[in-house]
Design goal:
mainly alpha, Growth Hormone, Chain: A, 17 helices, disordered N terminus
Amino acid sequence: MVSRRTSRVERTVAGPQWRVLAGTVLGSSLAFIDGSAVNLVAPVIQQRLGGDVAAAQWIINAYALMLGALVLAGGAAADRFGRKRVFLVGVGLFAAGSAACGLSPDLPALIAARAVQGMAAAVLTPASLALLGASFDDKRRGQAVGVWAGASGLMSAIGPVLGGWLAQAVSWRAVFAINLPLAAVAVWLVASGAKESRGGRAGPVDWPGALAATAGLGFITWALTEAPKRGADPVVLAASGAGVALLAAFLWIEARAKAPMMPLGLFRSVKFSGLNGLTLLLYAAFSGALFILPFQLLRVHHYPTAEAGAALLPLSVGLAALSPISGRLASRIGARVMLLAGGLLVAAGFGLLALRAADPVYWTGAFPGLVVLALGMGVAVAPLTDAVLGAVPREREGAASGINNAVARVAGLLAVALAGFVLGGTDPGAIASGYRAAMLTAAAGAAIAGAIGFLSAGGK
């Protein structure tokens, strides 16, 4: 039985193709593991290295800023300079950033190293998918991408559990050290198995747009992070103004660029614009609330770090299990009903988390809300992706998918930056009251997102 299965797999994905698939899965898993694991251990790192809530926010946002602002340019760079070359550079840079994170003596050094990881993730993630597209024929490409997506979901699920266990059993530094052997194996597999390829119509990389977006989002993120403790400080106001001006410059650049990283013409579609508005609200609610949840579990209810990581499993498992089902269901009943139902379920999940915030027992406190939240996200995510792709002509689907992915990441970035307004401090009382406020705010945002989806998706 085993030999038959093995031979079947080998016939489907053999030799160099197997190495490319395994290498891209491992490489992109670096970004997915770090994204979920570091979210959990950020409170632990902040406690060990000192600093306030803003320090914990920057542990997350230094990474998210670079990834969200540069992921579209990273895809264009892979097409122009070679998918294999860019992937290998990205994995190598991610490994270097991980080593620097693990060796960081203080928070500024760690935050700088996290920014390096974010830049690397913005390069290697789109390059990994492009490598699969270039390495497999039409028949096997879907299967390869399915394996890649499934493994990415699995790694996101493993991330908090692994991060919590490593932080508790070894050190928070081990969360970053584990990336090094994974990166080495990924480099060997892709270097030995992949052929170089480039995009047939690859234009110049939109570096001016990427720089303007990064600087603009960086100034606004800094201003939002500092505003809770500084108030309407002149420096905060100046940073806000500079951020808005740079984002306006980004739009000006995109309107005139020969190969823009964000084709603005797509936003002429009311459906496309509305669905990206839904994405912004839904992922902002999800990311902001999940930034605060570990503080509640670790600082207020005193969960061991490993248990806090395991507590988040219902989210990843629910998303992985329900997304394929909801995708098929949306094709029968239409995306708009699924988006409304998903948004309302997400809102109900956040409401339950707020209602049961004082209960320290996991199964009666956090678990019911997390299950409903996972159900809502599982119902909404696949129909949302499908609706976004259906809102544009087929030849623009790649750009539309990239923009929607970037919007989701920027939503998370801004939500974590805003978390300081509700998370009043690092003492348990301030965290507990801020947690309730964050969950209720997230519930309102998710409900509005569901309504926008119902109005925007069209069809059934």
